[in-house]
Amino acid sequence: MQKIIHRENDRGHVDFGWLKSAHSFSFGQYFDPEKVNFGALRVLNDDEVEGGQGFGRHGHANMEIVSIPLSGVLSHEDSMGNGRAIETGDVQIMSAGTGVEHAEFNGDQKDPVKFLQIWVIPNETGLKPRYDQKSYLHLDRHNKFATIVSPDTADRDAVHIHQDAYFNLTDLDEGKTIKYTVHSENNGMYLFVLEGKISVDQEILGRRDAIGIYGTDNITIEALYPTKLLLIEVPMF
After folding, report:
1. Nearest by Cα to 69 from 43, 104, 121, 40
2. Mean pLDDT score, 124-132
3. Domain map of the chain by residue range?
4. Has residue 68 got a pLDDT over 90?
């Protein structure tokens, strides 16, 4: 088993006034040669956008881009003709493929919107751009994992991703122990603590800490406090 720990305080923090962001991996003006990616996981940005502000139209290509609002409403527009509001409890994916332009902005003029922006390297380039969005509020994630992103097109509860990757959410009670097994021996697991505190492989992780684990088929996680956890399974190449 191999592991990489990313502490909250060690993330790249930027503050542009209208945007506050913490980068788990190298992004924009933040660069750390030790934090370029975790397998196919390329970007995990923890963003907060002030009311009425946002990202103007810009382009992407050959990347799977996942947005998960944590509070507030994120508004989305793109060159494919989509114009959607993404609310807390929704997950959105945009397969940039051959190229797409989009804009994201706070749908509220007063309160900030907080969301995770996550990029995954696709298993194929030159794909036709695609958009999908679903609510996961109906999924039971109390002391169990609920998959919200999956490569399985038959999984109607998850948005589809062009990669052997799975995004899973769980809400754990204090003292609860939960196990996760990878779908492929080539995959690793990146655990991001949204709230609370966990113990995994003799490591203690608190709010916004993360750990990447690979070279093992499964892990066991213990919640030391009530915990909200995002677990991303990706190929390690």
Report:
1. 104
2. 95
3. 10-135, 146-235
4. yes
**pLDDT value at 31 more than 90:** yes
In CATH terms, is domain 10-135 a member of 3.40.50.720?
no
Please choose, from the candidates 28, 1, 3, 2, the residue with its C-alpha nearest in 3D space to the C-alpha of residue 11. Answer: 28
Burial of 181 per CB tally in 10 Å (0-12, 13-18, 19+)? exposed
CA dist list (Å): 95 to 102, 118, 120: 12, 12, 10
Written as one string, the DSSP assignment of 169-197 is: EEEE-TT-EEEEE-SSTTEEEEEEEEES-
Euclidean distance between CA atoms 146 and 230, whole angstroms? 10
CATH of domain 146-235: 2.60.120.10
How many whole angstroms separate alpha carbon 90 and alpha carbon 113? 13
Q: For 80-107, what is each residue's pLDDT tens digit?
A: 998 989 999 999 999 999 999 999 999 8
Residue 194: which pLDDT band, with cuts at 50, 70 and 90? very high
Six-digit token string for 178: 């939960």
Closest CA to 193 of 150, 152, 222: 222
